[in-house]
Amino acid sequence: SSGINAEWPLRPGYEEGSNRRVHSIDGHIGAAVAGLLSDARAVVNRARDEAANYRDTYQVPIPLKALTERLGKYMHYFTVYGSLRPFGVSILLGTWDETNGPKLMEIDPSGTARGFYGCAVGKGKQNAKTEIEKLDLSNMTCKELVKEVAKVIYSVHDEVKDKHFELELSWIGKETRGTHQLVPQDIYNEAKTYAEEALNDSDDDDTDM
Description:
The chain is α+β, with helices and mostly antiparallel strands. The protein is built from five helices and eight strands. The protein has helices at residues 37-58, 64-80, 125-133, 142-156, 185-208; strands spanning 2-9, 22-26, 29-35, 89-97, 101-107, 113-116, 165-172, 181-182.
């Protein structure tokens, strides 16, 4: 199963839920974005258009590989011509089906696409990737992964600059019958509590040293 998760700082004057970083591209594909919000909206809308056009043409949902190739070419186009500005956004795309299992792709601002078992983009991505690499991803349930990824997000969060932030958690897998959706509220609360307690335990350990 795939977990698609994001966090972003809450600035003064912003309401929770007003600037989502997690989106559904089609019923079977979810996305998380990092970077400029206006660029993220443009890229997400393009991805949705590609998915809709594919479905209209072939009468089947777009495979993640096809979407990644089309969206990567679109983003790369903006890096080729001097009259255009490259997108200031990276996007993660995830899907799951009974035949192929979970798939996760990253497209960076240059339009280059890569596949991963687990990945992070945006602020603190290197520290997050280091923590993700410690997880036995192939032998964990999606529910376990949601908790661990929430813990990773909290552990790498820049508490000084972004004291308040909104955590978004979504998943797609056998639990959701291949449909991308936000995790149920009880699982969200459990993951958030788990992450906060782990962070507090870490802070206590640092204080004791």
